[in-house]
User: Fold these one by one.
Assistant:
Number 1:
Amino acid sequence: MNAVLITGAGPTGLVLALFLARKGVPLRIIDKNTGPGRTSRAMAVHARTLEFYRQLGIAEEAVQKGIKVNAVHIRQGHKEKGRVNLGDIGEGLSPYPFVLSFAQDEHERFLLKHLIAAGVEVEWKTELVSYTDKGGFVEAEIRKEEQTEVIETAFLCGCDGAHSTVRRELDLGFPGGTYEHTFYVADVKASGEAASKHDLNLCLEEDGFCIVFPVRSTGMNRFVGIVPSALENREALSFKDIAPFAEKLLHVKVHEVNWFSTYRVHHRVADQFRKGRVFILGDAGHIHSPVGGQGMNTGIGDAVNLAWKLAGVLNERVDEIILDSYETERIAFARSLVATTDRAFQAVVGQNARGRLVRTVLIPRIAPFFLRFPPIKKAAFNRVSQIRIHYRDSLLSMGKAGKLQGGDRLPWISVGRNDNFEALKTAAWQVHIYGKANPGLLTIAKQHNLPLHEFAWSRASANAGLRRDALYLVRPDGYIALADSEQTINKLTEYLSKFKIRN
C-alpha cells in the first residue's frame, strides 16, 4: 500500500510529492492530462516559495531559470506614467528579496525534472474515478485509458484544481463567485517599450488593463489582460481578434503568437480542507483573483505545510493529532487572502468611476510616490511575498519571546556570508538560540536528537524581533513552534512529549 496518493500534477501536487519523496514516503502521483501544462498563466514566484525551495536544494536553479523583476512600468498609451523600482525590495527580510517571473508551464517542467530525479514518475493520462475512506485507509479507483485499478492508500491528497474530483466526492461547499470579466493570456513575440525583457509592464486605460511579463526560456512576453467588452460575447475568440486592442493599449507590435487562451476568474474557498484521511490543496480548496500573483504560491504553501506533517505521521515521528493543524492553519489564510485580493481586484477592474480613478490616477501617480519610502516598500514586500503568513492560532503554536510568537515565520538573519536559514535545509525539528544556550538545554536537545543551533547575537537579530538567549523550537517548515524567553527545559520537553516529536 502506498502511503500517499496525490491526484493532480500541477505545482501544488509536484511540490507535495517532492517534499514527501525527500522524507522517504512511498507515494503515487496521477494526472488526467497527457503531460505538464503548456498554457498556464501563473507567473510570479514569491520569496516564501523560494525559501521552501531552498530547503529542497532547488531555489538557485529556479532563480536562474526565471527573471528577477527589476521594476514595474505603469503605462497609459505610449507614455510611462509611473515606475516602481523593485530590485531587491525585500532586502534584509529574505534571502530572496525580489519577485521572480517564472512562467508556470516552465515551472512545472522544472519541478517535474527534480521529482523524476527523486525517483518518482507522474502517471499521466490517469484519473481518480472514486474513493472511499475506510477509516484505517482510503480505497480509491483510478483509471488509465480503459483500464481501471482499485488501490489502497493511507492518505489521499487532492491537488486536482478548481474542478476537483476529490472535493466533489467529499461533498464540500465551495462558496464564492465568478468575476464578470473574461481574461486572456498569450505568449507572444513583440516589439515596443512595453515588451521588456527584464521588467514588468502594467498598461492601464479607463476601460481596461493588461500586464506584460518577460519569459526567459522563450525570450517572449506573456500578456494577461481583460477581453475588451466589444468582444466579450464572441465565440471562438482568437488572438487576431484581441491584437488590435492589445497593440493599441500596450503600444507594441506583435510579430508572433506562441499560444493564446481565455478564462474566467473565480474567488472561492472550500468549507473544509480535510475530512478524515482525505485532504484538498491549492485550487481544489481556494481560488483567487490574479492580484499579487498569490494563487500558485498559496497552493505551494499548502503543499509544504501538509507534507512535513504527513511525513512525520507516516514515519512515526509525530502524533497523528498534528494533522488537525493543516486545515486550521491554511484555511484561515486562504479566506483572508481571497477577501483581500477580491477587494483589490474589484478596485482595479471596476467599470465605475472609482475603478477608472484607480486605474488612471491612484496606481500610475500615487502608488509610485509612496513606494519610494522604505517602510512602505517593506510593508508591501511583507504582504505580497507571503513571508508575513503566521499560524499563531494553531494548536502547534505556543509562547512568546521578544516580538515573536509561536506560529510566526522564523525571521531570516544574515551575518556576513552566513545565515540562519542554512540550518533549515534538513527540514527537521530544531532549536535555535540567538545568543548562548544553557548547558542543561544542550543536554536535553542531545537526548531528544534535536539539533541545536547557536547564532551569535547581532543587531540583525534584535531588528528581526528576536530575544537574546531565548529558545525557539522551529518546525520543519521554518515556522516557530515554541518560543520561550527563559530557555525553560520543562516547556520544551512538555511540548515534545505532547506531540510525540522525535527526529
Number 2:
Amino acid sequence: MTKKWTFSLTAILLMILTACSGQSTTTSTTTAPNASPASTQAANATPSSVEKKLPRVAFVYIGVPGDGGWTYEHDQGRLMLEKELGIKATTVENIPEGPDAERVFEELAQKNDIIFGTSFGYMDPMYNVAQKHPKVTFLHATGYKTLPNLGTYMGREYQSAYLVGMAAGKMTKNNHMGYVGAFPIPEVIYTINAFTLGAQSVNPDIDVSVVWSNTWFDPATEKQAAISLLDKGVDVLAAYQDSPASIQAAAERKVWGIGNDSDMGRFAPETYISNPKWNWGPYYVQTVKSVMDGTWKSSSYFGSMKEGITNIAPLGKNVPADVKALVEKKKQDILNGTFEVFQGPIVDQDGKTRFEQGKKMTDEEILGTTWFVKGIKGVIPK
C-alpha cells in the first residue's frame, strides 16, 4: 500500500510540474467572441497556407480545335495551362473577325481576369474592349497594338519555314513550287519569304508561285486555290491555312505537300514533307503565372525556336535520310544562334537589294514585311 501511494503522489507532482512548464512556453491566441470557425482558421493561417485565388481565364478561337492546325495547337496550349495551374478556362470557338468578335470580348471582359485572342483580325476589337476594362489582362496573338493591359504574342515561325523550305528544295524535280497564302499580311508574307529562301539555299533555280485564298479555315476554297497551282505543274505545294485541304489536294495528284501549324502528316502520309509547328503551352503557363504573381507587363513577345514556341513537324516517312540530316544540322545552327534567316544579301522579286551582305533584318523590319523575295511569282494585294 505504501509503495502504491508513493507512486501515485509522485505521478501527481509530475503532472502539476508539466502543466506549469507548458503554461510558461505556450502563446495564447485571442479570438473575437463571435468569430466563426472559418475566420478563426484564417486568423491562425500562415501566409504559405493560404492559396492564391486562381484567375478566370478565357480563350477566343477563330476556328475549332478539330481543325487539326492553328486552333488545335492553341487548344493544346490551353490544356497544358489547365493541367499545370489547375485552372478551368473558358473557350469560345468559331468567332469571326469583326463586330461579332468585339461583342464576345466585351462579354468575356465582364467575367474574366485574363483573355487570350488567337487571331490577327481580333486586334481592333480587343484594343477597343481593353480600353474599357483596364483591370482585365488581354493577350493578342500576332497583332501589333498594345496598351498597359494589352500585350501581343507571336513566334518566329519563319525559322521553321526556312527549314521546311530546305527540305522542299531537295524534293522538287522541276524546280517549280506553289504556296497557298491565307491573307496578304506581314506574318504570312515573311513566312513565304523564309520558305523560299530556305529552298533556294539548297537549289538556287527554284521559283515559288503564290495565290491567296483570303481564308484561315475554309477547306473548299483552299482546295480550289491549291488546284489552281497544281494545274500549273508545281511538284511541291505548301500552304498557310488551318486546314489540311491543300496537302490533301496535292496528295490526290501525287505531289509533295507541306501543311501548317500542326503535324499534318496523317492527312497525306505518302506525300508529306513537313510543316512549321506551334507549341503555345509554355507561353500560356508562364504568362498566367506572371499575372498571378503581379510581374506581368504589357509587351510584344516574339519567341524563337530556341524558346520552344515554334518547331518543325517530323519529316515525312518518304523524305530521304540525307535530307533529314541536312535540315537537322541547319536547325542546330538556328538554335545555337550561328544562323539568321533574314540576313543579307536579300533581293526582292523586282531585283532590288533590300539588305546588303551580312546585314540582319530587325524585328520591326521583319514584322513590317510587305514585299516578296526574288524567285516568288505572285502579287501582294494592297
Number 3:
Amino acid sequence: MLKFHSEQGEISVSSAVFSNITGMAATNCFGVKGMAYRSMTDGLVHLLRREAMSKGVNVIYNEDESISIELHIIVENGVNIPAVCRSIMNEVRYVVNKNTGAEVRAVDVFVDSMIL
C-alpha cells in the first residue's frame, strides 16, 4: 500500500489499483494479446481474462516511496518483441504516474508466450 500525505489528509492506494491500471495500459499496446499467468497445477501459461488480469502483475514498493512493476504478457505472432516491450514500459510508467501520482522506478516486462 502506498500512502500520500497532504494538508487535507492521507490517501492510500492499494496494489489492486496499480495492478488494474498496469494491466489495462499494457493490454492496450499494439501486439499484446493479454496478460499471462503460469499455473502452479499444470505449469502452463494461461491467457488471463480482463477481470483477472491483475494476476499477471506484481507491484513492489521501494523504500524511497516509488514502485517497481513486473508484468507477464502474451504477445501476438510476428511482432517485434523489443519494440512492444519498450512501448509497454513507456505506457505503463506514464499511465500509472498520471493516474496515481506515484513515481515508477522500473517496469520489467516478461514475455511468457506467443500466440500463433
Number 4:
Amino acid sequence: MALKRKEIETMATEIRVPTLGESVTEATIAQWFKKPGDAVNADEPLVELETDKVTVEVPAPVSGKLDSIDVKEGETVEVGTLLGSIAAGAAAVPAAAAAPAAKAVPAAAAETVEVLVPTAGESVTEAEVGEWSVKVGDVVKADDILVELETDKAAQEVPSPVAGTVVEIAQATGATVEPGNLLCKIAKGEGAVVSAAAPAVAAPAASAPSLSGISMPAAPSAAKMMAEKGLSADQVAGSGKRGQVLKGDVLAAVAAGVSAAPAASPAPVAIRAASAPTDEVREERVRMTKLRQTIARRLKDAQNSAAMLTTYNEVDMKPIMDLRKQYKDIFEKKHGVKLGFMGFFTKAITHALKEIPAVNAEIDGTDIIYKNYAHIGVAVGTPKGLVVPVVRDADQMSIAEIEKEIGNLGRKGRDGKLSMADMQGGTFTVSNGGVYGSLMSSPILNSPQSGILGMHKIQERPVAINGQVEIRPMMYLALSYDHRIVDGKEAVTFLVRVKESLEDPQRLILDL
C-alpha cells in the first residue's frame, strides 16, 4: 500500500511532440528553455521544435517541476514522441511570491491560478493588451474570455483556464506584454476571497534582448544588405526567430532613417499641421492596432524593395457561371459546400504556376528560391484589417477540397480564430476586390512573394464573339509581379493561362 501511495505522489505528466500540421511528421529539438529540477507554470514554454515549415514552442501542460528530459537538443523526433515529464505536486513558485501581499487572503481561501500570456507563434515576441472582458471580483467559468491580445499579425482571445473569481488584473489595457508575463489571477471556486488591492498596472519593463538574450546571426541576405548600407547589427531590430535580423528588418531600418554615419541627423518626419479649432472638436484620434501598423509597414516595404509592375487581362466568366449553374446543387449535396468562383481560380492559378515557376518563387539576397509546391494565400478583409490565410498544397487538392478549406479559413478570419500557422508560408496570393464592387485595381505584392492576382467585379459588357456583338459577364484580372525575377513575357503568359483555364474549364480536367 505504501508503494502505491508513493507512486501516486510521484506521478508525472508526460510532455510529447504535438501534431505539427498537415504533412509534417518530424521535428528537430532546437532548444530547451528549462532543465530538470526547474519549476514551471502551466502554459510556460518548455522546448522549441523546428520543422521544415515552422518553429513551434511546446508549453507545459501543468504546473510543477520538470522531472526529466528524454530527448536532447539537435535530435530529430516524430509526432507523439516523449520529450520529458513534469512531476505532479511540485507547483512552481509564482513570480510575485516574494512581493508583499496587499491584503493576505485567508489560508482557507481557494487556490489561486495565474493566467499568463500564451505563446503566439514564430517571430511573435510581444503583444498589446486589449479590452478586458472582466474586472476584479467578477465570477468566471472555465473557457470564458478574459481579455484579447493583439500582436502584429493577429488578435488572440485568452480564455479562463478554471472557474472561479478574478482576484487580480496585472496588466492594464494598452500595455505591451511578452509570452509568459502574468495577465491576471483567478481564485478557483465560487467562494474565493477577492484581494482589496487595486488592479495592478504593468510597470514599464526594462529593455531586454529578444527571447532571453539568445541571439542568432543575421540572415545572409540581411547581412549582405547591412554591409552595403554600412549598418551594424545593433542598429537593426530583428523580428526573426530568436531575434534574427531578416532582410525586411534592414529595409524597415533604412526606411526609418537609420544611417551608418554616427552623427547623421534623423530622417525628416512629416509633421501633421494643426487642425482649426472648429475642426478639432469634430476629430477623433484612435491609435493604430499592431495588426494595422504591420499591414502598413509590410505594404510599404513591398513597394520599396520590389520592382513591382502590373499586367491586366479580362476573362469571360460565362463558361464558369454556366458550369456552376448546372452542377451547384449536386456539388453542394455531395461535398457539403457551395461551388464558388475561388475554387476555379485557385485551380487555374496552380496550373499556371507549374508552367511559369518564377511567379511562384522568391528572391533571397542573390539567390532565387523556386517552390515546388503551391501554398495559395487568400486575402480576407476582417473587422481588424487585412489578413492572408493560406491554402496549403492547393496544387494537390480538388476544387471541392479547395472550396472547403477557403470556407473554413474565411470563417476563422471573421471570428478572429486564425492561428499563426494558418497565415504562414504562402507562395502566391489572390485578392478578390470584386466582392466589394471593385471594377479595376492594382494589388500590392505580399512580400516576399513575387506575384499576386487581383480579381474584380463581374460586369456584363458587349464583346465581339465570332464576329457578333454579345453581352457577356466579364471580369478584369490584374497580376502584380516582381520584375526583378519575373519577366514581362512570363507575367503575360501566366495571366493568359489563367484566362484560358477559366474560359475553357475542361483544360483544368485535362491538365492543359
